[in-house]
Amino acid sequence: MKRIPMVIKLFSVLLILGIVSSAVTQIQKGKTRPLTTEQWMEGVIEPHCKSIKKGLEANLLEDKAWKKLAVNAAVLNESSYVLMADGRCPDGLWATAASETLRVGSTELLKAIESKNIEAAKSAFSQVTKSCSACHKAHKKKEK
Ligand code: HEC
Is 46 touching ligand 1 by the criterion CB < 6 Å? Predict the structure, then answer.
């Protein structure tokens, strides 16, 4: 068997390291814009998700509260596009969680909110939160 020259071995190792580390940065940040995934989660997804949870727990909602919930649901829906933008998405699992589970769930949620149907809203919200766990299980590192 012919021996593989050292330069080629070294080059392969560097290439593999490069691919692995760029996949990691891709998850944490897009390719051109400064926003990190962590910032979007903390600044947008988590607060809107919490407001929906609180709002739906309150059950009997007034018009003003429904209107606020619609804002939250619409922002989560828009987030399903942000998470796919700027080359942030690393694989099919991410794509399914963002552009299917989160997007479809939040669209359903918005419909339920517009028709002020609390039961439908609760069930759509549970779809929305399935996207969090699906994506986190694969792509969010264990607690630091
Ligand atoms: C398509 C993937 C994806 C989806 C969907 C997703 N997340 Fe995340 N989330 C991540 C990744 C990746 C991180 C880790 C970011 C890092 O630490 O670099 C994260 C981190 C977080 C964090 C921790 C942020 C911090 O300050 O460290 C919170 C909170 C969070 N997500 C909430 C949610 C909630 C709530 C949902 C569902 C409504 C959700 N996420 C849906 C990918 C996703």
Answer: yes
Which residue carries 């021996």 as its tokens?
3
Q: Tell me how far the alpha carbon of residue 130 lies from the centroid of ligand 1, in angstroms.
A: 12
Summarised one tens digit per residue, pLDDT across range 31-70 is 999 999 999 999 999 999 999 999 999 887 899 999 999 9
Query: Which pTM does this prediction carry?
Result: 0.88
DSSP output for 54-101: HHHHT-S--HHHHHHHHHHHHHHHHHHHHTTSTT---SHHHHHIIIII
pLDDT tens readout for residues 123-136: 999 999 999 999 99
Nearest-CA neighbor of 77 among 97, 48, 94, 102?
102
In CATH terms, the fold of domain 36-137 is Four Helix Bundle (Hemerythrin (Met), subunit A) (1.20.120)
